[in-house]
Each structure stands twice: as C-alpha cells, then as structure tokens.
Amino acid sequence: MKLFRFLALVLIASSVFAQSKKSSPNKDAVIKSVEVHQQELIKISDAIWGYAETALQEHKSSKELADYAEKQGFKVTRGVAQMPTAFIAEFGSGKPIIGIMGEYDALPGISQKAQPTKEALHTGGGGHGCGHNLFGAGSLGAAVAIKELIQQGKLKGTIRFYGTPAEEAVGGKIYMARDGLFNDVDVCLDWHPDIETTALTQSSQAMVDFIVEFKGKAAHAAADPWNGRSAVDGMELFLDGVNMLREHVKPSVRMHYAIKAGGDVPNVVPEYAKVWMWVRDSKRDGVEAVFSRVKDIAKGAALMAGIESTITIQTGDYELLVNRTGATALQKNLEKLGPIIYTPEEISFAKKIQEASGGEQVGLNGAIQPLKETEKDPSGGSTDVGDISWIVPEITLVATTAPENTAWHGWSVVACAGMSIGHKGMLFASKALAMTMVDLFENEQLRKDVRAEFEKKRNGHVYKAYIPDGPPPVPTN
Ligand SMILES: [Zn+2]
After folding, report:
1. How far is the CA of 409 from the centre of ligand 1 (A)?
2. What is the CA(128)–ligand 1 centre distance, in A?
3. What is the pLDDT of residues 261-308, one digit of tens each?
4. Pairing state between β 97-102 and 187-194
5. How far is the centre of ligand 1, averaged over its atoms, from the C-alpha of 242 (Å)?
6. Residue 400 Cα, ligand 1 centroid: separation in angstroms?
7. pLDDT at residue 477 above 80?
8. Residue 193 is inside which H or E element, if any?
9. Is 457 helix (H, G, I), strand (E, B) or coil?
10. Residue 416: pLDDT above 50?
11. In what helix (H) or strand (E) does residue 210 lie, and over which residues does it extend?
12. Ligand 1: centre distance to CA 263 (Å)
C-alpha cells in the first residue's frame, strides 16, 4: 500500500512535469513561421518607418501591410469605418474569432535617422517615436503564423487582423468600434513597443479631447475699445479657471491645453480665440466629472467677458480594462521564449543614446519582467486600445524596442525603431502573440475564463464611443 502510494505519487509528479515541459507542435510551428518570414516583416516595418505617415495619412503604410496580408491569402477589406487607411484582413471561418490589432501611424516633427545621435532624416518630417511601424508588422507576422495553422487544418476558427490607423491623434479604433467591427470577436490581442518586456497588467488613462472656442466682437483697440468684446479675455478667464480647478481635483487627474488662436495684432480687440484641451483620469467617470466642471468654467468665462463660448468634443479614450487571466497565459509564453538577447553593438548603440539623453548608461533591458500587480491609478498615457478592451477581452504585450532613460515619443525611439533593436522586439512580439493565440484557439476553457473575468469587470457597462456623430476627420488633401 505504502509502495503503491509512492509509485502513484511518482507517476503523478512525472506526468505533471512532462506536461509543463511538453512542447506544443503548434507553438513550435508559429515560432518557425515568424523565423521564416522575418526578413519580409523587417522589410515591411522598415518601409513604414521610412514613410513615417501621421494620423489618417498612412496611405503607403497601410497598403504595405494590407498588400502583404492579401499576398499571404487573407481576405482583405480596405477602407473600413470610413477611413481609407483602416482595413481588416481575415482568414478561416467560424468560431472562435481571435482578433489582433496593428498600428502604423507616426508622430509629426520628430524625423530621425537610425543612429544614436540626434539628426533628422527629413527636416520637419514625421518619425516613429512610438514604434508603430514595428507594432503593425509584428502583429501581422503573428496573424500570418496562425493563418498557416488554420490552412493546414491544425487550428479551427478565424484569425482577424485589424489595421488600425491614427492612434496618436483622432483614435482610429474608436471609429472602428463605433461601427461594431469588434462585436463578434472572442478575444483580441495587441502589443506595444516599450523599454521592457512583460504581459501588460496596468491600465491606461481615460481621456477626453476637446476644443473650446470664444467668439467676441472686434473693435479698434485705441479708438473705440468699449465697442469691442475680447475673445482673448474670455479665453484667459477660462484658463485661469482651469488652473484654479487643479487645486480641487484628484491627484490622478491631468489637464493640459494648447492655445490655437489668440488674436492677431495688439491694436484690434480680438473677436476669436481657441484652446485645444485634454482632461485625463484613471477612469472614465473621473474624466466626466472634471469635464463637466470645465464646461461650466467656459460658460462663466464667456459671461464675464460678454462673449460666447462653445465646446466641441474631438475624441476620447476609455481606460484599459486589464484581463489578468489573458495576461497570465501570455506571460507563460514570454517565459518559454526567454529574454531578448542583444549584441555588443546594440548595447553600445543604446548606451550612446542614453549618454546623448543625459541618462544613466545601463544599455537595454531584454529580460522578461514578472507579472505585476495592477495599480489603482495607471501611470500617464492614454490609448484607443482602451475602447476595444470594453467590447472584447483584450490581452496586451509590451516588448523592448528601445532603451530606458530616454524620452518616449522622441528621436531615440525613432532611431531604435528603424534598426535591429526594434526588429528584435518586433519579432519577439510576433512569436509571443502567435503562441498565445495558439493557446486561445486550442483551449476553450481559457477562452471561457478570459471572458468570465472580462464580464465581471465590465459589469454590464454598455460601450459608447466618445466621439462626435458623423464620419471620422479624414484630411481632404
Ligand atoms: Zn504608441
């Protein structure tokens, strides 16, 4: 009896061990697929890096990705949600439907060569200071790997790649969400370039982006100022009010603005003024509360100046609804893949950037960071991925594509996104996301658990896009 028990224990222990060590043929296959396609993925990413097209202007960048998807056998639908640069690429049929998102918009004015010192590639041009060239190509690489398994009959269901434009401005995903394009998806994934590598367990800030306009009455500033009503007076009173409000909001709130119009010359009472402003907080409720006070301040300021004010919402992001069940599944795959290893040249490239940025020269961090506790208030930043996370369970990876101790949305991130440091992060992301999608296709219980956590956290909330009615603001040039 004793011996039997001992043997049974040995058997159980060895089978658990065998299971945890067991290699998955489908996971091996997706890793292989990314390796087979890696030169193509790098080529696409570098092309998009070179185009550096900003929000809703990403014509060449989206074509680069959509054409490749089409060549790989995906059914591609271009120009979805009334945005010429948005598209969907799909392969397979039926459930489950696993979605994966890719971005490709650049930031204006931060053009940079792929070198460790600051020098524009095209003076005044855009640059991939958030690494979205890697984001798009990396996600598509993962989708292609899954497509191959569906094609070979090794996975059942649908893989759907979302080409999502204009993350840095406008919020392309919000228009796609408003059109219901994510409604039938079981689980959606994405990744983002970063200074470290982990399954993301932190939320992002909810925000509202709006314009405040003041309309007064022009007059000669010396001859008859009593006949004038200054729009700039109203704007100044408004901004004073906003800055006084700072004392009475929670520490998690952020308010920032840029003055877009404030009169032309001193000797005319200005009849028009315009402020572009964002309010952010950890949750959408918090944003709503502050925004309602800001609206009152605009009204009060206009009343004091004897003018009129109007507020126009441009866009707004939900905070990211973290799915820890999904993140845990992703994290296991990161640990299987192991850290991103850099060459001495890459480390020295990173150190030169850190030196130029005045930061400590610590090189690159390719280690897999442990899964972190979800903090109550996220650190600064908003994303339209947040909106998607309220429609469908969302799993997000962050992977190292640039060194720490340097400014994000800056020249050094552009530099790394156009060379091997960025490429390594992108290929790592392709593999990790494809492996996690293998889990999601193969494991129905995982899909159920991910969905259960999502429903619990969403708590019956019905998603409503924070954008004005009508089409997206596609530039007409
Ligand atoms: Zn970004």
Report:
1. 8
2. 9
3. 999 999 999 999 999 999 999 999 999 999 999 999 999 999 999 999
4. parallel
5. 28
6. 13
7. no
8. strand 187-194
9. helix
10. yes
11. strand 206-215
12. 34
Average pLDDT of the residues of the chain? 95
Q: Are 302 and 309 in contact (CB under 8 A)?
A: yes
Q: Which residues are 313's β-sheet partners?
A: 210
Tokens linked to 172: 């392309």
Is 60 exceeded by the pLDDT of residue 8?
no
Distance 192 CA to ligand 1 centre (A): 6
Cα of 9 to ligand 1 centre, how many Å?
50
Q: CA-CA distance, 56 to 385, in Å (whole number)?
A: 17
**pTM given for the model:** 0.92
Q: What is the pLDDT of residues 33-73, one digit of tens each?
A: 999 999 999 999 999 999 999 999 999 999 999 999 999 99
Strands (E), 267-328: 272-281, 308-317
Evaluate the CA torsion angle 73, 77, 83, 84 in order and state its sign. Answer: positive
Cα–Cα distance measured from residue 75 to residue 92, given in angstroms and rounded to the nearest whole number: 9
29 alpha carbon – ligand 1 mean position (Å): 29
What is the 421 CA–ligand 1 centroid distance (Å)?
A: 17
> What is the amino acid identity at position 407?
A
Rounded Cα distance between 216 and 211, Å, is 17
Q: What is the mean pLDDT of residues 456-466?
A: 95
